[in-house]
Structures are given as structure tokens and as C-alpha cells.
Amino acid sequence: MSTTAASTRQGDAAVLRRIFRLHFWVGLFAAPVLVVLACTGLVILYSQPLDHWLNGDLFTVAQGSTTVPLDEQVATAQRQVGAGYTLDAVTPPDAPGHSTRVDFRPSDGPAVGEANATQVFVDPYTGRYLGRRSELSGLVGYANQLHRMFGNDGPKVQLPSLGHLVDPVAYPNATIPVGVGNLWMELTAGWILVLLASGLYLWWPRAIQSAKPLLKLRWGKGGRIRWRDLHALTGVVLSVVLICYVLSGLTWSRYWGENWRAFSATVAPSVSVAAPSTPAKMGDYDRLGRRIAWAATDDPVYASQPGGPTAARISFADVDRITKGENMIPGFAIIPPSDSTEGGETVYGSYTVVNRWPQKLSEQRTLYLDQFTGATITNATAAQDGALSRLTSLGIAMHMGNQLGVLTRITATLACLGVLISVLTGFLMWWKRRPAGGTGLPGPVSDATRAATPKHVVKAVAIAAVALGVLYPAFGVSLLVVLGTEAVVAVRRRTRAEEVEPVSADDGGDDLPVGALQ
């Protein structure tokens, strides 16, 4: 073997050792979050059938020949919760034999954001009260909370707002309050991207691993080989899908997602509607049980024209009839008008009707109706959004398993199952490989391995890390913490070793043979 070939082989081995070490430790860190995301994602993906199965007494009723007026159903629901609750939305039955759902929020609680609404169910044929629940309760409710790591609930930190730097008028707040759990999810998502990229690198064919199959499962080999092949095959097949899920999920995160929203609106603004609006935004009506489309969150709630001192609001029954005439999708929610006072003058809100969530991009629609006349103020659809907003909404619809119907639901299901298989096989690989009486964890990088690592590889990894850290600041900060901690540990380890005995050319690190990657 020539000197050049030997040097190349030594360099490849060094890179593989270091990438494997990175892949292992990142996998160990990200595995618990991946398991939570996969399990809760499966529940959310099938939330509607699960809800009807687990709570059939609330959702399903005996179909009758006539129905009770919708406003009477709302009044029945209001009596059940009492005066301490404010009406939040009304969802008429989405099919014959289904109940009416009326949402309330505590009068003394937050009026905006992901408040925990109380859902009351009424039989539309008899007007009978069926029951109530918190939207965050039960299997589906807990899955929604866990999947977002409790979102913006709990302790918060104030982080700089990109939107405020770009457009202080549109984004007057200089900081964004971000829940610690959501921030943890965001930085973990960055490390999951590193996990997927390092896994693809380890799988990529190269001469030093000529015995390693690419898309073949050596099931008959048994032991670690079997789990290695299943781990690699699952990861490679699903890696592109998982990367898309991570990227689309980040657009929905509290910090990076809000900054992305501001960037998207600035670079590719949506078509504005020439109509008076109220101080409220559509995002104020966002609930975990009734989400507002991502691109519509910053849309204003348009105002109704004053109807004079004797004018009265049209009924929910009228809104329901008008909405069905506008061909909104059954399962839509009617949000009542919210009036406000500015400078001593009353600004009248409008009835706001949104299609059921989750939805396809083509189903993203908000209907604004004058609260006095029922006239359509405007009809907002995805076609009015900017290009980046539409792309983001498309990614979210794919993420939720809705955009292509059954195909995307199957893909999402396989992705969740694939994540669980990858975590399980990764654990089994480690279990089979660990030596008797040892942990089998990758040791520190030896001086010999560090010296053998090609400089161009070090530069490429550094550039990629810096780019990812700048694009996703939460990940970038966590990366600096990890590098700083590792540097301190390395210095202390070297100091202790020098105090005991001189360090040899190979200090015992990198305990993974190259053959273990085959």
C-alpha cells in the first residue's frame, strides 16, 4: 500500500471515529425527545378518530328529524359553565349524528393565545347537555402538550425579536417571551439535524468500509450486525422525511418560528385588505383545540360597520346559514365578535369563521362577517399570502399529515414508527457492542486521531456548524456551551494524566474500531 493510500485510509478512519462519537452522543441526548415526539405525533395524527373512540358519548348522538336553534344550544352550554366563563367559539356539527361544541375560556384568564379552553358538548337534535372537558385533558390533550414541550406555558425567558429590528412599527415588542420547554425543543431540533446528517455520513459508501452493505439487511447475521443494518436502513430511508419534519416543525416554534414569520412577511408580504380592522389579531384566537393557520396568525380581525343605536348582532344560526352558503368546510368554528374602545369610540368586531384544523393548504380560509348585517367583509385564503408564508403553510400541512390525504398520513405514520425503530436499534447496537464490565461509550478523541483528521474535513464541519448555529441561534448557543464544556474537560483530563504519567501517542480514547461501523 502506498504512503498516500495509507494516509488517506488513516484520515478516513479518524473522521469516521469522530463522526461516530458525535452521532452517538447526540443520539443519546436526542433519543428521549425523539421518542416523545414520535409517540405523541402518532396520537395527534389520529386525534380525530381517537377522540371519537375515547369520547363517543360527547361526539356522537342519535340523529333526529329536526334540530334545536343553534343559539339555544349555545345558551344551554353557557348555563352549564356559569357566569365565570366567556364564550370563545361555536363549532356546529360537522356531520349528521354529531354534537355541537361550544368553547369557553375563564373570564379572569388570558383572552389571547393558547389558553386552556373548556369545551361543552350539546345534542343539536334535543338541545340536551352532553358533558364538558378541558381541551388539554385526555390522551389527545396531553399528547398536544407534550409534543410542544408545553409550549409557552410555565417559566419564560425574554429573547430578542428579529421582527422588531426589521420593522419596529409592525413588531413593537423588542423581545419575545419564550417558554423554557419550547426553547428546549427548538435547540434539540437543531441537534436532531446534526444527528441525521452524521448518520448519513456514517452510512455513505467509502473504500474503508467496503464490506458494509448500503440498502441490504443482513438479518441472518444476527447480533449487532442485524441491528446495525436495520438502524442504517431505517435512518437513510426516512432521513429526508425527518429533516422536512424538523424544519417544518421549527417554523411553528415560539422563538425561531416567530422570527421566521417576521422575515417571511418582510421579504414576501401578503396581499393587504382595504378594510377597517380592530386591534385584535387572528393569533389571539389560537387554541390547541382550534388552531389558526400559521400564515393567518398576524392577520387583523376586521371591523363591522356601526349599525346605529338599535342595531343588534345577527344570531349564530344566521352565521351558520351564511357560512354554509359560502361553502366553508363542515367542522368550521364561529368566533364571536370582540368589540373594543379606542379614544372613546367603540370599534365593533366581526364574526370570524375558520375552517377545521388541521387542514390542507387549499382549505386555509377565514371568513369575516359583519356582526350586524352578516355581509362578507372579506374572505381570506392562502392565495393572498406571500410566497414564503404559503411554503411554510404547505410544510405544516405535510407535517400534520393532511396535505396529500392518505399518502401524507401513511408517510407520517411510517416516519414516527421509523424514529422508534431507530432509537430501539441504536440502543440494541450499543448493548451488543459494550464490553463485559464496561459501558461501551465512545471515549475522548485521542491526540493521534485528532492529528490524523484531514484539515479540510475540520474546516467543512466548522463551516456547517457555524452556518447552522447562525440560522438557529438556540442551537448555536447550545453548541458553544458543549464545545466550551468539552474543552474544559479535556484540559482537566490532560492535566490529571500528566500528573500521573506521560501521555502516550494514543491516550486510550476512540475505543471504537473502524470495523464496528461495518
Note the beta-strand portion. 5-15%
Q: What would you call the shape? A: elongated
User: How would you name the oligomeric state of the polypeptide chains in this document?
Assistant: single chain
Number of strands: 14
- Which whole number gives the mean pLDDT? 87
Separate helix tally: 15
Class based on secondary structure composition and strand pairing:
alpha+beta
| Cα Rg | 28 Å
List SSEs in N-to-C order: HHHHEEEEHEHEHHHEEHEEEEEEHHHHH
Overview of this protein structure:
The strands form five sheets. Strands 1-2-3-4 form a four-stranded antiparallel sheet. Strands 9-12-13-14 form a four-stranded antiparallel sheet, covered by helices on one side. Among the domains are: 3-43 and 179-252 and 406-517, no CATH class; 46-146, no CATH class. The chain starts with a helix and ends in an 18-residue tail after the last helix. The chain has helices spanning 3-45, 47-54, 56-59, 70-81, 138-147, 162-166, 180-203, 223-250, 255-267, 316-325, 387-399, 406-433, 447-452, 455-471, 473-500; strands spanning 85-91, 100-106, 118-122, 129-134, 156-160, 175-179, 277-281, 300-302, 333-335, 340-342, 345-347, 350-354, 365-370, 376-381. Helix 1 (3-45) packs across helix 7, helix 1 (3-45) packs across helix 12 and helix 7 (180-203) crosses helix 15. Strand 10 and strand 11 (345-347) form a beta hairpin. With 518 residues, the chain is an alpha+beta fold. The model is unreliable at 503-508 (pLDDT under 50).
